[in-house]
Amino acid sequence: MKNIVIVGASGFAREIKWIVDRINEVEPCWNFLGYIDSHIGDDRVIGDDEYLLQYPQELSVAIAIADTKQRQRLAKMYRQNSRLEFPNLIDPDVIMSESVSVGKGNLICAGSVLTVNIDIGDFCIINLNCTVGHECVFEDFVTVSPGANISGNVRLSQGVNVGTGTRIIQGRCVGANTIVGAGAVINRDMPGDCTVAGVPAKIIKDRRT
What we know:
The chain has 209 residues and is α/β, with parallel strands linked by helices. It is 15% helix and 32% strand.
């Protein structure tokens, strides 16, 4: 069994601990050491960022931080310690074909379905009960909130954050770092560095200017 820690101590971090437990119920893989967080006074927390940067042995790390920019910052920082590795944690309940390609550091939660010929980059989060259709591409650090339905041939560029209950129509592309509001319906391509919301989705904030 490999030692693993979870970065964060929020409710989402505890949900990722649940995935670890559920994986171990199927096949014992992980020895959970504790959470990594700046609030080290919490008895569940065994250390902060410096603890990981100085860790002297091989250690698996799950970054359970939903905020995309913070997750990017932490991943870059932790890579300074070559002993750290970033496994994919995929709930045993997830349905996905063998043709799904998954990078590293991804967290995929229970109830999600990923069909065929899908390419998932690094450090993505696919939360509870999402569907991802054929030939989708998720670049690095994509976050998909619970209950999103993503049709086939969709591209989510780096750092996209998809809100709860979003629907994305087949063949659409969402540009890098765009935030999609909860319940939005994406029926056309969206540029990067924007916030979009509504049915159909429209740009409500443009960070490109």
